[in-house]
Amino acid sequence: MDRAVLTFVLWLGIYLPAVFAEGNRDFMRETGKIYVVVATLLVILLGIVGYLIRLERRLTKLEHQTKDDA
Amino acid sequence: MKWWKIASVVLLVYTFTAGLLVPLKSGIERVEPAVAATKQSLAIRFFGYNTFFTRPAEEPIRVWLYYNDRYALQARQVKPLNDTILEATFQMPANLPDGKSFVLLNALVDHPAAGASLLPAALTLRQVDSAEASLDRAWTDNPVTGLHLQRGFSFPYQNILYETIRNTYFHVPMWFVLLFLFAASVFYSIKYLHRPEVDLDRRAAAYAEVGILFGILGLLSGMVWANYTWGKPWSNDIKQLMTAAALLVYAAYFVLRGSFSDPEKSARLAAVYNIFAFASLVPLLYILPRMFDSLHPGATGNPAFGTQDLDNTMRAVFYPAIAGWTLLGFWIADLRIRYQRLRDKALGLD
Amino acid sequence: MNWRGFFALLHKEIVLEWRRRYALSGIVLYVVSMVFVVYVASSRPTPPVWNTLFWLIALFASINALVKSFVRESSDRQLYYYQLTDPVVLVLAKIGYNTLLLMVLSGLASVAFILVTDSPVQRWLLFTGILALGSLSFSIAFTFISSIAAKADQSATLVAILSFPVVLPVLLTLLRLTAATFTPADLPLSIWPEVRNLLAIDAILIALVVVLFPYIWRD
Fold first, then answer.
1. CB-defined contacts B:C, below 8 A
2. Residues of C in contact with B246 (CB under 8 A)
3. Average pLDDT value for residue range B311-317
4. What is the pTM of this model?
5. Burial of B319 (0-12, 13-18, 19+ CB in 10 A)
């Protein structure tokens, strides 16, 4: 599961920008570069969500552990 | 749920809504042709951004190509071709001011509702044929006057940036959150040295960890933004380097914490390092930006976001944005602390 | 401030070092080897390159020299003696000793470096002053950091990483000041703001060390 997430993030973070970085005049740069704003926001939100997911998983594991011990 | 967590959500919803929905002020993207010669009579097209030239207006749209406060050329005729293209006919004068061989003219479009829009250095005017002795009257006959202010709330238009100016509400606050979180971390480190309680050390570590998170997010979001505005994601800009330095410092903080087996010693020495490093970061953040030029706004002298960099309209969203993101940062840190407490209790370390 | 204690400790450090000369010999070896590397690489560096190379050599030699500042407290007599003294006096004495050590080191490094390359330095008095100031600044930073790292694994890498934020503005200021020594001696200079910055940093650092060191020394 973790590896799938990692691969997806890598694809998102490396492949996509590479594709869009070359064909510049078209996608990212048209419509007033609003999609750059979208991309920036996505980076921040995905980062925060990612951290929260990590925290969530560790909490759940901890809850299961204490439940087993109790 | 605590009031400040609710406040963070409210502020962030406001930031996102206003930040994304408020339109940009009308601006001029470019002018075609961008080169002209003296004595020429030509129709120049002005390409607008977020303009509505064909909408009926109570006063006519006026267009100038101006050199400075004293010398301006007004268009003879202005005709909107569509909402975003304006065709202005100019009769170029016979000679240029100050006896120059070519001048850069700024484009100015004045619209009764949208206000005045400016594009600096839009057109190059060359001196062709020999110049006459006295300056052509066209330069002074129609000075720029009676410019309108825009109606309605909008964000500034900036060439190259366009809509990405909205990133000011998303990328820039990351730096402020980082500073606030690291400051909280140092605060708890100081408290820990006074009164060595485990929870104080837990808080110091948690704030440092979330601070690093926001630092990374700030760097990454900045790289995305820079890629499409500065040309490349990393330009060794001083602010980028400083953020990287701050992150290295706190990474070292965690390395230090890890190198001790005795938790009390680790907490104490890490607290000392935290204070020392933060205190020495402050002159770094103060001195370095003044040493180097930067692509970031508010550079060359003052690294903070100066008063000249922010429009009043932007401030109405920027300050709530900082508050909202900071509160969110503290909320995440709060979760991290609570997790650590549970974990320590479960492992019997409490 | 216990001045007698300060000078007594300082004297003790110097005498100890002179007897066994561990640090000195290590430093000499380090400096000679680095200068040799530079010589092999290029003996005609341009002034900015000379500046950078010199200070990088000085920086890494200083780190290596000061990493072991807090190691020799193994003998019982020394331990007993330290327990009598105020930790502030102790750390200040260490810093004083380390400053002297680094001044010797930087002097040696500059002599070796100048012999081996064309040095662009023209104002020698100023250069010596900068070396002294740099030695003081590095000494404060690395002594303090090595006191923290001493409880861990005392590695030079750890000391380098931990000192990074402190050393960076100091290093950049030293580079700028040294660049000023490349101009001929008769032209006027406006380096006072930089010197003032450096002194201010040193003042902040000393204050921090004096306040924070007792917490490290608690054991």
1. 75
2. 165
3. 84
4. 0.81
5. middle
